[in-house]
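Reopening closed ticket. The problem is back. First fold of the pair:
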Amino acid sequence: MLRRLLEYIGTRSADGRAEDLKEYTIGVEALDRAADFDPKTDTLVRVHIHRLREKLSRYYLDEGREDDVLITIPRGHYGAVFLKAPSGAAQEGATVEETIPPMDDPTPPELTVSQPGFLRRSGFLRRSWLAITLAIAGLAAGVFIGLRAAPKNTGENDLTPAVASLWSSFLNGDKQPIIGYPDAVFLIDETNDLLRYPSGAAGQRGSKVESHLAESFASNPELVRRAGPLYYEDGYTGTGEIESAATLTSLFRQLGAHAEIKRSRDITIEDLQNHNVVLLGSSFQNKAVDELPRQGDFRFVKAGPRHELWDGELENSKPAQGEGRIYRTERDPVSGVLRVDYGLVSFQPGLSAGRHIVILGGLDTTGTAGATKFATSEEGAALLQQAGKTTKNGKQTAPVIQAIVRCMLKDGNSIYGVRAIASHASEWHETNQ
């Protein structure tokens, strides 16, 4: 899908048609969305443009560091920009974005703005059309799509046997699985500042919060008292959860199922009984995950009653040799930038026969994205299937299959490597249900 997206955007931009690249057009013409595609409710284009930017940046820091032509998609635009690589920029570790003048800066010498958001070097596209065409073709052929350090994600038409087997077993004939995303509740003041509201009765979005409720249940009562009028706001979801929902929706479609995406707080007991459910996010953010009876050896643990910001923990209650007991988000000791996040993959039986629940969550939103990358990769699916082949007293068990994954981060946000550091299969305790 990313290969097709790059080729579509690149060729139209090089042809001088960047102005025609709208979210709707890209969704319908490049990403196979139907004619009734609504970009306001379907984030597919934004998610994949974000992924494409990340892949391009990483490509030019590694395999493409010697390339003569740099291709990038400036933020806020869908048109591609082609530039001649500055001498030594890649070797010195500069990202693609750092080689491009800011869009609101005066145009540097020999550069003219031919369209909004589209920089064109005078005569450069004409003289280098062959080089640009080859660059698009080379990248679109998959030079940068697979990361050596990370498991390969499932995309359009590339289901591998292990991935197809694992997730077909999960679906078990269910044509409408449910993906539950977290929508943590905040209190918002009249200047759009947000205050966390992790517990307590919450009204409908936009309704005014009674002051005694705000002070009793908000994470920081002192700030609440000084904030003035407050209103309920539950319209924010992490980027990792959005990317995960897009990945899973694509995967299920390839397996003949059409996922229903719901806020986790709207998932009912009937949903859990009649459908297979994937819950995205940790128990810190996803109420449904927090309310599930604990299964397996791995679980999320809060560091304290108030603090959640990168202070949560993943606990391994039965560490095997070489495994840790506690995993925490790791940050640069000087700058504080996030360097490592951890995610949990957990497959367990659902509330009725033949139904399943999967939890894909991280200490941070990047951990959720990493858990999904792992569970939808060939390596991850093979490991999870192998972990599920456990026996007890010579009989196959119906285990809870779990893995803790370590996610390496660039710039605190982009994942460039995911690997499993612990995987367990444990017996499912029906009495907990």
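Second fold of the pair, where the issue appears:
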Amino acid sequence: MFILVMQFFWKYIDDLMGKGLEISIIIELIVYLSAHLIPLALPLAVLLSSIMTLGNLAENNELTALKSSGLSLFRIMRPLMTFMIILALVTFYFSNYIIPVSNLKMRTLIYDIQQTKVALVLKPGSYTRELTGFSIKVGKGEENKFESVTIYDETNPQFVRVIKADSGELFKSPKGDFLLFKLTNGYMNEELPTPPPRINANGIPEYKEYKPARKSEFETATLKIDLSGFKLERTNEDLFKNQFEMMNIFQLDKAIDSSMNQYRDIAGTLSKGALNDHIYYLAKDYKRSLESESTEKRDSMLPVISDSSVVRLEALNDSQLRVAYNEAISKIRRRMQNFESQKHLLKTKYEELLKIDSEFHKKFALSASVLILFFIGAPLGAIVRKGGFGAPVVIAVLLFMIYYVISISGENMVKSQTVLPWVGTWLSSFILAPFAIYLNIRAGNDQPLTTVDFSFLKRLFRKK
């Protein structure tokens, strides 16, 4: 868990640094993040601990002593199996009720942190424009005391204020709402708004040749800067509640039904729209409406077509053919563009449906993976007869990499619509379950991991 949390902070370090976040906010984020990382950390922890436990028993000959008293491996593992079943049930409850809430709060908190403006950092020799409406440049200085301060105040759009001071000192108000810049020995120039023009006798506006300004000097002055945009503001969590990662299985089940109905409605509407836009189907509808009317009314509805109104292709000259062809091509292109936009809409809706369905199966697949990895690690530890943090860590990491690669491959296959969501979600369980059965049979019969004889390698590389 520590490694995974550090990986998260390494990824979001740019969003966290320089924001002036309180320790309580960081601790809150770590708590939500830890719950979010349980599906990734728990299978690895179960695999490692099961290899270490049975490996220690086998390495110290305690497993041999238990078997010599008439106990089988499965009888010895029965307390561990009971514990793992309870852990799998707790994992399902945690995945169904706790993780969605932690995901919701974590995403909301990360969003709020990202929206928080960067804290003010005055760098000597360069302008700082992090404060809205201010450009501040300072000379040399350290901590909160600086020399040669230049401030451009553009908070009032009517005029620009330039403040220069020999030195300055930064303070924060007790509540942290304002930044106070105490300036010493300086002056302030203000460019006032241009007065309206004077209308002469001929009705022509006359502008003054100068712009009014005001200059004032001071020994000490305090500039007050609002910091309301720099504080962390908490967003309403209801904005994120409709995302599928923040739902339990009951909400996901309803979301699947509603998404499927929306997909079918959109597909049906687009199909009807495409058919109604085609001349052939318009003619079929027109013919069907005519057949349902009486003979007299049908004759009155039929259009009168004379030879003079019919345009035949062979009667057109080259320029007229070219115009007709270009117009037909333009219509086809417009229709193709319309179909592409409709296809993209359908694809987006279908991908959303696949994600929701995959998340539904993940709730159950996590508990199953915990059990399967236990039944891989426990017999493997009894076979290799190694405990501690040496070989078990290496074996657990290699097996977990295989499990993780298979899981990610299944998710990518679902995204590419190669397999159904339940197949991609359960793919790692389908592949690793036979391997777990094989290991339990070998360990139960006190057989090595494989019957292949590798002694020829020793003979090949033996010392001469």
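Update: turned out to be a display glitch only; the data is intact. The chain has a mean pLDDT of 79. The two ends are 49 Å apart (CA to CA). Please close again.
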